[in-house]
Amino acid sequence: MMSRGSPTPGPVVDVQTHLFPPAYLDALAVVARGGGRAAEVARDTLAYPVIGDDPLFTGALQQRLELMDAAGVDTHVLSFPAPFVWSAGAEEARRVSTAFNDGCAEVARDHRDRFELVATLPLPHVDESIAEAARALDELGAVGVSLCTQCDGTPIEDARFDPLYAFLSEREVAVLLHPDGFSVPGALADYGMEWAIGAPFDDTIVALRLIYSGLLDRHPGIRWIVPHLGGTLPFLIERVDRVWQRDAEVQALLDGPPSGYLPRLWFDTVNPDARCLGLSAAVLGGGRLMYASDFPFASRRDLGFSLGLLDEAGLAGDERAAVAGGTAAAVLGLS
Fold this sequence. Notes:
The protein has one domain (13-332): TIM Barrel. It is 48% helix and 12% strand. It has helices spanning 22-32, 36-47, 49-53, 61-71, 90-110, 126-138, 162-170, 193-212, 215-218, 233-246, 248-251, 274-285, 304-312, 317-332; strands spanning 13-18, 75-79, 115-120, 144-148, 150-151, 154-155, 174-178, 223-226, 266-268, 289-290. It has an eight-stranded parallel beta sheet with strand order 1-2-3-4-7-8-9-10. Strands 5-6 form a two-stranded antiparallel ribbon. α1 (22-32) crosses α2, α1 runs antiparallel to α5 (90-110) and α5 runs parallel beside α6.
């Protein structure tokens, strides 16, 4: 299938799309009847207006397929939408995760080649997360897993998560990251800033934590995909390199400048500005970018908009084909 307005053939794979399966909403309803912060987040999620108002968030698969066909999108990769429900109880966390994964896996089975599952995991519970990752990969056909850019306030490189990363590295699993608003509670609570700028800040932070912490070296088999063009990274990476050059303590952490580690990461293209996409292709490399729409949160009625940004950014030929789907197909192991 060929994307609208593009002369370049090849697969078109959208690596960041979301769905709230009914079974997942049922699991949230159980959590919502409890107490604590997890119950509060569950109640807020269930009360989110679009979930009840727009069937595209919970199903309407035929309508979604029609939108995909109209835009020329071959495959939607389904991954976990924020907010994350951080459950203190391992069993509760496991039930929520499995409900989401099973619901999305059913969609993928019923519509082969049009939908793929990236499984969510019941972190911060490591043993349960390893078990669910194995189940999702081996039994549900998941093409990767999704993790938050932080874990309930704990940085992603925390040593307690190393057994999970060792498992994912051994299996050479793709990990799609996603922010949960902003990791500093209250700092951006006003004026809609938590999602307008906070989420991209966390994208930037997690990329640099992956680089500076040595996590990329300790677990080289993981294929990390950072969302939203890496947040502010394309704009700030030269500044990051300069700080590394003049700070001996920071410099000792790496064998070379931070920018030299960018080719070990991938980035999705969720950003509504073609100018930012063009800058990111120049700084990060077009071969490290993967097309994504954040459907249905963005471009809800016209998936052609986000694809059109590839043309507006000046991507063409092999580079455009790679961004549109070739790179994602290779990294996720899609046929």
